[in-house]
Specification:
The complex is a heterotrimer of chains A (188), B (579) and C (418). Chain A has 188 residues and is α+β, with helices and mostly antiparallel strands. Chain A is built from five helices and five strands. Chain A has two domains: 45 residues; 118 residues, Alpha-Beta Plaits. The termini of chain A are far apart. In chain A, 25% of the residues are buried. Chain B has three domains: 115 residues, Beta-grasp domain (Ubiquitin-like (UB roll), Roll); 185 residues, 2-Layer Sandwich (Alpha-Beta Plaits), CATH 3.30.70; 207 residues, Rossmann fold, CATH 3.40.50.740. Chain B is 25% helix and 18% strand. In chain C, a hairpin with a 2-residue loop joins strand 5 and strand 6. In chain C, helix 5 runs antiparallel to helix 6, helix 6 packs antiparallel against helix 9 and helix 14 packs antiparallel against helix 15. The chains are: A alpha+beta (188), B alpha+beta (579), C mainly alpha (418). The interface between A and C is medium-sized, with 29 and 18 residues.
Amino acid sequence: MPTIKLTRPKLDAGEKIYFGALIKGFFLTMKHAVKSLRGKSYGAEGLASSGLGVTMQFPEQRWDSHMPEYYRGAPTLVTDEQGRERCVSCQLCEFICPPKAIKITPSEIPSDDKWAKVEKRPLEFDIDMIRCIYCGMCEEVCPEQAIYLRKDYLITGTTRQAMVHDKKKLYEIGGVRVGLVNKWNELK
Amino acid sequence: MSDSPTATAEAKLPKDIAAEKGMVNVQIDGVWHQFPKGTRMIEACRAVKKDVPYYCYHPKLSVPGNCRMCMVQMGMPPRPAPGQEPTRDENGYEPIGWMPRPAISCANTVAENMGIRTTGELVEKCREGVMEFLLINHPLDCPICDQAGECRLQEQSVGFGRGVSRFVDMKVKKPKNVDIGPRIRLDDERCIMCSRCIRFMDEVAGDPVLGFTQRGTHTTLTVHPGRLLDHNYSLNTADICPVGALTSNDFRFQMRVWFLKETPSIDVNCGTGCNITIHTRGNTIHRITPRQNNEVNSNWMPDSHRLNFHYIDGETRLAEPLIKENGTHRAATWPEALTNTAAALAKYAPSEIAIIASARMTNEELFLIRALAGKLGTAALAVVPRKGENDGLLIAADRNPNTTGAKLILSSEDPSAPLASIREGVRSGTVKALLVFGEDLTTEAGFTADDLAKPEFIASIQLLAGPTANASHVVLPGAAFAEKRGSMVNLSGRLQRLNRAIEPPAQARDDWEILRDLAGGTQNLIEEVFKDIASTVTEFNGLTLSKIGHQGTVITETGYEIPLLKNEGVRKAAGIING
Amino acid sequence: MDLLIDLAIIITKIVAFTFLIVLPLVPLSVYFERRFSAIIQDRVGPNRVGIPLTLLGFKKDFHLFGLIQPIADGLKLFLKEDFTPEHVRKAFYWLAPALTVVPALITVCVVPFGPDVTLFGRTEKLVIADIDVGPLFVFAISSLTVYGITLAGWSSNSKFPFIGGVRSTAQMISYEICLGLSIIPVLLYFGTLNLNQIVQHQADNGWLLLPLWTDGKLSLPGLQTALFWIPAFIAFLIFTISIFAETNRMPFDLPECETELVGGYHTEYSSMKFAMFFMGEYAAMVIGSALIITLFLGGWSAGFGLDAAIANFSIGDFQIGGFIHMGIFLTKLLAFILFFILVRWTVPRFRYDQLMKLGWVIFFEAALINVFLAALIIAAPELTATIIATGAILLIAVTAAVIWVAKISEPPAKILRA
C-alpha cells in the first residue's frame, strides 16, 4: 500500500478558536433562510417555483412547458406513416436494458402479410414500468428506430400488472414517427 | 516443435534437423516454428495462435478456397543461381523472398523455409477488400437475421472491414425465405457462396442435393430440382453456415443467441452419445447443437436427435408426485410418496418384486437401482432393450445411450435378458410388485395395458404422462437428460458426462435422489455416488465425475466403430481434409 | 379539604406543564426543525398535511402550513409494526426508550414558567415543584438519560447500536462535568439554588447576560456586575455547548451518526419505541433550552424594568400577570429551540476525538478557571488590593500553564495513509 504523507493545514489563532467560522456559517444559513422567507430563493425563477425554496409545487404546477428537448420519459414503440410496426424484435433493447424491464416474444410475420419481407415482428412486447429507469439505452441501441422515449412521465397504476405496458399500450403512447427506414424497400 | 536447432546438433542445418522428424521450418510473423509436412498454412497459423479469418474453410471438409478471406503474405527463399550456395543467417535459415501478391492459406501447405505474414499492410488491405466485396450484396438485415450474434460476417466485418459502404448501386435481389427442406430455411441474399453446406451434404451426409446456379454476383445456392434438403443431417448445414443464409426452422425467431447459456452435455438418443451443447435461457431449452469430439461425433449430429427435446417442457410432463387412491391419482408430497412406496414394498416377498430399469439412465442411477435391488433382495432386474437401424453415420442400432454402462454397473452380459421372465411373471401373477424406472413399458418392453393392470402395486419414475404412469400406484416425477448430472458409457466404451442445463420443473426431482431415498442411501452429492461406483466397478477405478472431462474417457474396449468416424479417417488419410 | 385542593392544584400543574406545554413542544419543534432546515436549504419542507376538506366535499384543503405533519408522523409511527428483533435482550430493550423520555419529562417540574398568579384568592407559583435545589435536581435526573441510551445500545445486541451507546455514555459523562462546573459561577452570583428566586433576582437586577437595570429601573451596571459579565458569558458558552452535547444534538450527535453507525443506538428500534427516543431527544432539547433561559437569559422575565408592572397586571381579583410572563418564557424558549435548529443545520459534525478533547482539555479547564475568576470578582469588595492582584496574577499564570500543557500534550501530526 502506498503511503502518502498528508500535512494538516496550518491554522492561525482565529481559525483555531473556531467561533469566526461558526458565526460566518450562521450568517450564511440565515441569509438563505431570509431569502427563502421573502420568496426569493436562489434559482427560483428558473424553475417557476413559488420562491419559498426552489421546489416546484407539483400537482398545481407542472413541468410540462419547461421540459427540455432531451427529456427522457416513458419508452414507447412507434409505427411509421403507413402504420407498420418498426420493431423487428431483434431483442437488443431487451439485452441492453440495465434493469431487465423489457420482455419480448418474437414471432414470424405470416407470408401472406403485405409486409412479409420484414419476416419478423414482436408477438408480445412488455415493458415493466416499475423496473424501467428511463435511461434511454433501448432508444440508443435500437437499429430500426422503433423505440423512443417520449415525454410522458406520469406513469401510475394501482396494480403491478397495470404498470406493465404491453405492445398495444406502447404503440398507443408512441404514435407515428416519420423518417427513413429502408427495410420495407424491396430494392434495398 | 519449437526445439532449438542449435541445441541438438550444431553442424546440421535446421532443415535437416526438421526433416529427420518429418517436419518443416516455417517462419510465421517473424518467429520460426516447425510443423509436420503437409500441414495447411491456415492450420499452422492457428496452431501458433495467429488469427487468420476465413469463411469457406472447415477442417472437416475439403478445401475449395473460394472465399479469399484467409489470404496471407507468403515467401520462399530465392532460388540460387547455378553453382551458387544459398546464403544463410547465423541460425542457418535462408533469407525469405516475399511474394508481391497474397496467397490463400487454406489451400496451400507449408514448405521448408517458408515465410508467412498474417499482418501487414498488404494482408490487411486484401481482407478489407474481400470484406467489402462480400458485403456489397449482403442485405444487412442483422436485426432480423437469426445468425446475428454468432455471425462470422459480423465478427470479421468488425475485425477487418472498413466500417462504411461505398456501394451506391442497387443490390442484387435473390430469393428470400426459401423453403428448401422441412427443417431448414434458405435466404439467398445473405449467402456469401462459401459452399460449406454443399460440401457437407456431398462429403459427410452423402446426399448432394445442394448446389450453385448462375454465375458471378448472381450465383445462387439452390436445392436440386425436385429434391428437398430433407436429409437427417441437414441441420448441420445451419451450424456451419457462417452467415444467416441457412437457418433452423425449429429455432428460427425463437431467441437471440446472445441470451443463450451454453452447457456441454451429451445426446441420449442412441448409443453413440453425440457430444452436444445445450443452449438455454432461464429454464427453457432453445436449441441443441453438436459439440466437437473427434472420437465420437466429429462436428456433427443427426437432426432427429437434436430436435428431440421439446417434450421436456411439454404438456404431458409430470411435475409432482402422484398417489393412486380409488383408481384416481392425487398429488402428494415427496415424503408421502416415498414412505408409501416403501410401505407397499415391505408387504411383498423378494420373489414377488421385480424391477425394470432403463439403459437411458445414468451410471449413477443404475448403481443405485442395483443397491435397491440388493436391499429388496430381488434378482428380477432388467433394462429395456431398444433397437433401431444403424444409419451408417452417427445413429447406432442400439438406441439406448447407456447399454455399455448398464452392462458394467449391473455386471451382466445382457442386462435386458431377465425382461422376458419378468413379463411372464407379471402376466402369470407371480410378480406382484413392479418398480419401473424411466421407461414406458407399453413401447419397447412389450407390455400391454392389460398386463400393467395385473400387479398389485406399481411404483414408477416417469417423465411424461402415459400408460405406465396411468397404471402406477405411485408416480415419482423424474428429471430429463438436460436436467441432471451424471455419466454414461457409449457403445465404443467412452465414459461421458451429462451436465445440468436447466432445473427440473416444479416438484420433479433428480432421478438419483429419488433412487437414493428408495434405496436408503446416504449420499448427499452425485459425486459421492460416482465415488461408490469407482470403488465397486473395476472399469471406473480411479475416476471421479470431474476427471471424465468434457471429451470423455475411454474405460473399456468394445470394438465398436462409429461409421462416420471411419469415413472421416479415410478422407483424412487421402489428404482431402485436415481433421 | 385544603389537602385535596392542594393535590388537585399539583395534578393540574403537572398535567398543564408537562402534557399541555412541554410535550406539545416536542412535535412543534420537530415541525420547526423540518420547516426551518428546509428554508435554510432553499426547500419548502412539509407544507401539505392539513385538514383534507376536499374529502368532505369542500373545494379546497385546509393545509395549515403543514402544522398537522407531526401528528401524521406520530400516527404513522404509532401504526407501524412494533418489531422486536430475535437477538435482543428483551427486558432492557423495552426499558431503554422509557428511560430516555421519562427523565426529560421529570425535569420539567422545577422549571419556573412564570412568577406567582393569584386566582380565586389563592396565590400559586407557576412551577410544579419550587424546590431549593433546582439545577442539582435537573442534573441528577437528566443524567439518568444516559442509561436509556446505553441500555438501548447494549440490549440491541448489534455492533452499531453498541458503538453508539458507548459513545453516548462517554460523551454524556464527560460533558456533565463541564455542565456542572460551568454553572458554579452563576450559583455563586445568585447565592441560591432555587430557580424561581434566580429568575426573580434577574427580573429585578438585570439578566445575567444583560445586566442593564437595577431594582426595576434602567441603569448601567456597577463595576462588579460589569466585571462579572465576563465569567457569566464564559459560563454561558460552556453551558450551552455542553447542553448540545448532553442532548446529542448536532454538532455532537455522534451516538447516532448515520454515516458511521447506520442509526446509532436506536438502529434496532422501530415504531413507537423509536418514536420515544425521538421524543426524548427533543424533550431534552426543550428542557435544556428552558434551563439556559432560566439561568442566563432571565427566564420568564421581560426585562428592562417592566416585570413589576406585568406581574401586577390583574383583571378584578385575578392577578394574571404571571400568564403574560409564561408567554414571554415560551417565546424565549421557542427562539432558543430555533437557535438549536439553526446550529444543527449550520455546523458540521465533530470528530469523536475532537469532541472528547473539547470536553476534557478545553471546557473542563476553562470552567474550573472560570469558577475562581468569578469567586475573585464576587469576593473583591471584601479583599485588599494586594490579595486581588495576587489572585489575578495567579489566575493568569494558571491559565497560561494550562494552555501550555494543552499545547505540548497535543500529539504531533501523524502520517495518514491515503
